[in-house]
Sequence to fold (477 residues):
Amino acid sequence: MSQKDLVFNPYMPFWEYVPDGEPHVFGDRLYVYGSHDARNGEQYCSEDYVVWSAPVDDLSQWRCDGVSYRRTDDPRYAPEGKDMMAPDVCQGPDGKYYLYYFNDMRTLSVAVANDPAGPFSFYGVVHMTDGSPLPGLAFDPGILCDDTGIWLYYGFDTSAFGEGQRCPEPGCFAVELQPDMLTCKHAPSKVLEGSQGAVGTPFEGHAFFEASSIRRIGKTYYLVYSSELGHELCYCTSDRPTGPFSYGGTIVSNADLGYRGNNVPTAYPANTHGGLVCVEGQWYVFYHRHTHERQYSRQACAEKIEIASDGSISQVEMTSCGLSDAPLPLGNTYPAHIACGLCGPEGVVHISSRVHRRPSDPFLFQEGSDCNEKGDGCMYAANLRSGSSLAFKYFEGAPGIYECALECRGDFDGVVEVFAISHAGVEALVGEIRIAGGETATWSEFRGEVVLEGGVFGLKLSPRGDGSLDIKSVAVA
Fold:
């Protein structure tokens, strides 16, 4: 398998930051609609919307279909406007594509296009029959058009931010739209409570926070949302679009918290948003992760999921292979930024502010150009110190003695220990790579021998020594 045919997390190029991804299949392509962050950004959703898509029969061939909607396309745009938050798209009864979004005007707006990739044109503002705007905070819309109607979901709960914080109307709301895709047929109904209203219910501890995403699978409605914990996508189900909904569980956490009972974060936990999609018979959950020591440079990831015969979905772990049909093969050089685990010597902290507070924390960082054309850009794992770890899941290969090569730089003097990780999470030291201090001011390659039992396994790199180390790539061959 050639490098160009491989797909891993993040599945978009290292220089692209499209969080809040809502995946939809239209025709023979899978489209992802999300907000758009900047690398090393200073705020959420600072860029115009773009659309990325891939053919349903080859999810390794992603392409950018271009800017689909600019903030200046909204006639109410003001120069001080700062964000175009998480959108969603559906195909209306008329065959056109409708983009629902929330921005600084604090209204839920709609744009329309003849093609799923856009470009979209401003269409109007969702409103009640009397022309008044939607009540409550019309945040993070999710839209579904099926044979029962056109269903719009939205909501927020600021109480998840802590004591004393209260949203005037916390929770998730649903409303049916008229065929014009703008006018509500009736008053919205609350379908999920926020954290305070969920006390004493099955939702307690995993109550609705934001990121409404709706799908109909068979006769069942699946409402996916970001919980009060922030780092996880949960789901609930109902046989009606307006509920009542029954709590299902967590689908994915961007720190693997809760996976197989795990209570120690394996990466930086922070906000996430995404949805479900079925491609060629396989279901996936889309979500995002965090880079650049902050919440404002988020990248798109996806994992395979299984929907059991009873309709339940078990939590899946974060992986490096994501959309790939199989574990990643040995013999290739892989960029370090596809690591799904990143921990510092003091563990992991929640990214609750713009920048990590501890100088010992490692992070993912981009340098160079924002495209592959110049060949001078990369994203690397930075500031790895003794006791830090960088983990990749999963690889597959035959048992044997291999050479592990790392492309590194820094003032580090010591060794990088290489561990193999089983699916059950058991780690075994399989080799080490000597990194000599003073030799890594520029990107340099260091090699060491590893002994692998073969099969499917993860790899963890853990420095032991003095100084700090940046890692750009890893290869086992």
